[in-house]
């Protein structure tokens, strides 16, 4: 990996008594954005690192709205979306002032002439309270909207103007009519396909049969009479009402899957979703990106329940997906799944990278905390909970 301009280097981002955790970091040729639990900072990109602006949230807002949890920077719109722990979505705009943060009369960076860097500040454009019974767990976006993941396994989409664009669960089955036998049959077959990846023994393939328990049938009938049933299974998440039968054994998906993190590749139109139970799933997006939300479609699973997936990152140039595990290892998978997504088990990884050969076991590294591909997908930066990189 090539670190330009003498990287890595330390930035004096948080000086003083208060120590803040960084929740989001964005680097490009124009800006370096650092979002912590209580503030937002913008620095110059390129060779020199000069702080252009700093926005610190007040104590009363931190108490009422919660600390910053995650964020996403849209470079084309120059807007920043921040999600707090109290399900509040904050959308900040960037204002360039006339005051100079740094001005040099002589040659600037690389001898390109005088350097005049303007101060830049963030200002609040929209504040939205996400009205949901679930917790907001992660967010990402594109130029058209902001995608928020919920703890019930569904997604909500918001415009950059703070408008609600819908809620959708690509892991549940969609039915357009309330009393269509064909729709119910399709719902059972696809739900059993998703629940069949539970990781237990006897998971069948294309010969799976699905049936509803009496309690599940009653819940399905009650749910189908509500307007939300036309779009998804609602708060039941992925397969929350189904029981897949195969090989004489029954596997019931009793709890909805909670989304832990996700990654989006606009060029590949694929979304990687990691669940708290260790699963990692791939979702196809529409031609227009994340909007409309209803075009999100479950593609295939990379990891089953108990695999220990913690984070996933898509390497678009190499068309591979890196999945960090609780063991500290990194599993590499092909981006495109098997030809038959209803297969009996998830695909095998192309390769599993481990530090065990160098004498670093899980007890010293801890689980994988984050991953980041280089632009050409030929190098991978890995950070672990044990403080290793």
Automatic annotation (TrEMBL):
Residues 206-249 have a biased composition (Low complexity). One of its GO terms (cellular component) is Golgi membrane. GO terms for biological process: intracellular protein transport; retrograde transport, endosome to Golgi. Residues 199-253 are annotated as: Disordered. InterPro entries: Ric1, WD40/YVTN_repeat-like_dom_sf, WD40_repeat_dom_sf. It comes from the Eukaryota. PANTHER family: GUANINE NUCLEOTIDE EXCHANGE FACTOR SUBUNIT RIC1, RAB6A-GEF COMPLEX PARTNER PROTEIN 1. This is Uncharacterized protein. It comes from Apatococcus fuscideae.
């Amino acid at each position: 990996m090539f670190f330009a301009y003498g990287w890595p280097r330390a930035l004096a981002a948080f000086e003083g008594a208060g120590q803040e955790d960084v929740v989001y970091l964005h680097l490009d040729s124009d800006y370096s954005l650092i979002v912590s639990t209580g503030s937002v900072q913008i620095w110059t990109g390129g060779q020199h690192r000069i702080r252009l602006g700093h926005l610190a949230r007040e104590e009363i807002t931190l108490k009422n709205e919660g600390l910053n949890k995650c964020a996403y920077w849209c470079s084309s719109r120059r807007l920043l979306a921040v999600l707090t722990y109290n399900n509040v979505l904050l959308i900040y705009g960037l204002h360039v002032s006339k005051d100079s943060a740094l001005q040099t009369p002589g040659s600037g960076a690389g001898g390109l002439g005088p350097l005049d860097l303007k101060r830049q500040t963030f200002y609040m454009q929209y504040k939205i309270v996400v009205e949901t019974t679930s917790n907001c767990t992660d967010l990402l976006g594109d130029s058209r909207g902001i995608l928020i993941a919920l703890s019930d396994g569904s997604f909500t989409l918001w415009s950059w103007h703070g408008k609600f664009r819908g809620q959708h669960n690509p892991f549940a089955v969609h039915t357009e009519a309330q009393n269509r036998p064909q729709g119910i049959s399709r719902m059972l077959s696809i739900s059993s396909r998703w629940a069949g990846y539970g990781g237990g023994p006897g998971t069948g393939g294309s010969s799976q049969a699905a049936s509803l328990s009496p309690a599940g049938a009653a819940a399905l009938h009650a749910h189908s009479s509500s307007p939300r049933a036309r779009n998804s299974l609602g708060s039941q998440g992925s397969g929350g009402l189904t029981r897949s039968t195969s090989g004489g054994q029954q596997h019931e998906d009793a709890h909805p899957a909670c989304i832990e993190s996700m990654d989006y590749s606009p060029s590949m139109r694929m979304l990687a979703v990691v669940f708290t139970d260790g699963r990692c799933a791939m979702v196809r997006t529409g031609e227009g990106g994340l909007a409309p939300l209803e075009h999100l479609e479950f593609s295939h699973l990379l990891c089953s329940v108990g695999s220990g997936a913690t984070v996933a990152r898509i390497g678009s140039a190499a068309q591979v997906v890196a999945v960090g595990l609780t063991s500290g290892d990194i599993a590499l998978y092909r981006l495109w799944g098997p030809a038959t997504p209803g297969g009996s088990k998830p695909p095998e990884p192309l390769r599993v990278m481990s530090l065990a050969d160098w004498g670093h076991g899980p007890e010293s590294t801890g689980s994988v905390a984050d991953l980041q591909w280089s632009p050409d997908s030929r190098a991978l930066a890995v950070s672990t909970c044990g403080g290793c990189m």
